[in-house]
Structure formats: structure tokens, C-alpha cells
Amino acid sequence: MREKYVIIVAGGSGSRMNSDLPKQFLLLGNKPVLMHTIERFSASSSNPKIIVVLNESMRSYWEALCLNHNFAIPHTIIHGGKSRFQSVKNGLQEIFKIETNRLEEVGVAIHDAARPLISTKLIDECFLALREHSANIVAVQSTNSVRIGVPSKSESIDRDQVWIVQTPQTFNARLLNDAFMQPEHASFTDDASVVEKLGYPIHIIKGDHKNIKITFEDDLKIAQMYLQLLQT
């Protein structure tokens, strides 16, 4: 890849955190979650150009946070859409505008803002995987017994065949350009599912159980414990 980008999707709300403030702006340690996430990508050997997709209403709040925390890592802010699909598409359009004539040579990572503990090593593995695979996801195998069905009728499935998907997910930019020309569909639960709809295979990179997504209040406490361990 001649050029690398990461789209950090930060348009979520704080509904499941019992907070009026979206989770990516809550403090983890002494600074907002989103700053930790940006720092991880900036510190990686891949050092991708960083695009942050924000809800338009939160832009001024984020800019004030950056001033208050003396946060100066370069990043481009793009306004999000009404769904993740639309938000990612907005971020991609910024890349396509810059890299119009060489999309085949561009690698793009897409990452949840609320996964601030992603390791720089894993980030680099995801970009390196683009040398052999056009679509990559980070995932961990289930450690629990798994059943599929509804409460009244279910059946067990082999947990060794079950993967819990994380981010980042990395793709060739040309592939993403084709994939995000599709109409949005309810089956698009992540970016890999958009690409998969076109028939492309998805390569799995073994993830890290510490790469948690902060969704509920207890997740923030767990992330704080992991962060303290990383700093000791």
C-alpha cells in the first residue's frame, strides 16, 4: 500500500451508558476515550492518515476538548450520517476525493471509536494483511458454549466455528468503493458484511480479548483496569 488511512467511526450516542454524553467523549483515565483511540493509530508503525467521523452536533464539543487537553494529533473531521453505513461512506468519500486515480494502492482501516485499547501491533498486522488479502477483520473465537435459535427452540453449535468480530477491519480502497455503491441493507452489521455482499471472501486475523468495545457502564471500568495494566 502506497497510502494508508483509518476511518474512526465516532457518531454513536450514550444511550446504553445511561449518559447524555456519547461514550467516545467520556473520560478514560485523564482524557476522552476517542483520544486514546486516535493515539493508538498515530503510534502504530503503519501511521495511517486519520479521519474521524463525528455527529455534526458534536463537532464544536470535540474541538473544545482538543483545546482543553492540548490534543494535537492531526486528524480530519467528517460529519456522520444517520447510520453506520452512511457515516463510513462519508469518510470514504473524503479518501476517494484525495486518492481518485490510485485506489488500488490505498489501504483503509475502519475502527470503532469506542475501542480505545487496540494494540499498535494488531493495527500493523491488519494493514500488513492487505498484502495478501483485500478484506480483513479482527475477531476472537468464542470461549463460551453457543446456541442458535429463539428461547423456545434452540440448538448448540460448535463454538470453535464461532468468531466474535472486532475492529479494525482493513480493505483495499477500490473494493470499498465498489461495496459502498450498494444500497444500504439491514444485513450490513459491519463493514465486512458490506464487502461480503459483493461475494468477496473475508480473511480473519486473530484478535485480542482486551480490545473491548465500550458499550455499557461496566465496560468503562474494565477498560480503566486494562489501561492501568498497560501503563505499569
Automatic annotation (TrEMBL):
Catalyzed reaction equations: 2-C-methyl-D-erythritol 4-phosphate + CTP + H(+) = 4-CDP-2-C-methyl-D-erythritol + diphosphate
Pathway annotation from the record: Isoprenoid biosynthesis; isopentenyl diphosphate biosynthesis via DXP pathway; isopentenyl diphosphate from 1-deoxy-D-xylulose 5-phosphate: step 2/6
GO molecular function per UniProt: 2-C-methyl-D-erythritol 4-phosphate cytidylyltransferase activity
Enzyme Commission designation: 2.7.7.60
Gene3D superfamilies to which the protein is assigned, alphabetical: Spore Coat Polysaccharide Biosynthesis Protein SpsA, Chain A
Keywords recorded for this protein, A-Z: Isoprene biosynthesis, Nucleotidyltransferase, Transferase
Record HAMAP family: IspD (MF_00108)
UniProt function note: Catalyzes the formation of 4-diphosphocytidyl-2-C-methyl-D-erythritol from CTP and 2-C-methyl-D-erythritol 4-phosphate (MEP).
Similarity field: Belongs to the IspD/TarI cytidylyltransferase family. IspD subfamily.
Protein name from the UniProt record: 2-C-methyl-D-erythritol 4-phosphate cytidylyltransferase
Source organism of this protein record: Sphingobacterium deserti
